[in-house]
Amino acid sequence: MRAITILIADDEAEIADLIELHLEREGYRCIKVHDGQEAVLAVQSNAIDLAILDIMMPKLDGYEVTRMIREQHLMPIIFLSAKASDLDKIAGLVRGADDYVTKPFNPMELVARVNAQLRRSLQFNSTSQPGKPTLEAGGLIIYPEERCVFLYGKPVELTPKEFDILHLLASHPKKVFSSEHIFEQVWGEAYYEGSNTVMVHIRTLRKKLGEDVNKNKLIKTVWEVGYAFNG
């Protein structure tokens, strides 16, 4: 069986070495690079299961690396950055990251977040029925095995977390999910008060589904309760 491979991209060698040490203790295979260009090349030439990206890197920053990765791949991405404001975190999530960890960080917390991201990703892949759509509604088709989505015959490029949220809602039409429930189901960890992570992901998901221009809303907001799939 192929070892789970994690890309570590950080221009601070000491930090990259520290992350590698803790992840290898968990049994993961690590590939370390120190600039954005090397990160893109590593993804192109290796089967990467998860990427940990610093935002401020030489040649290409983490945002640009994420954009390029998302053109071809849907592996989970964790941003690791000294940019610690709420606006920085929201910007990272909007640009395609699945999680955001600030420096200085606890290595064991980062390992726990890596485990949670991989657990969710591998769980959806292993429980899906191959080649069969799980849902068809309003021009939307979801294929859980391939983790791909089509809207009126055109592919919709979603991040792993966006896909997981859509899959969760679409699997229970009309059922209202609170932000807390969505977070705990998709991220696999306890919800923390004040988090707007789910709201940010719902916003970008709606945009990708064309809800800013289409009259039919696939994701309905239930005021002061949560969200429901309106298919």
From TrEMBL:
Domain of life (superkingdom): Bacteria
Keyword field contains Methyltransferase: no
Keywords: DNA-binding, Phosphoprotein, Transcription, Transcription regulation, Two-component regulatory system
Family matches, as PROSITE patterns: OMPR_PHOB, RESPONSE_REGULATORY
DNA-binding region: 132-231
Residue intervals of the Response regulatory domain: 5-118
Modified positions (4-aspartylphosphate) in chain numbering: 54
Domain called OmpR/PhoB-type: residue spans: 132-231
Protein name per UniProt: Response regulator transcription factor
Organism: Paenibacillus chartarius
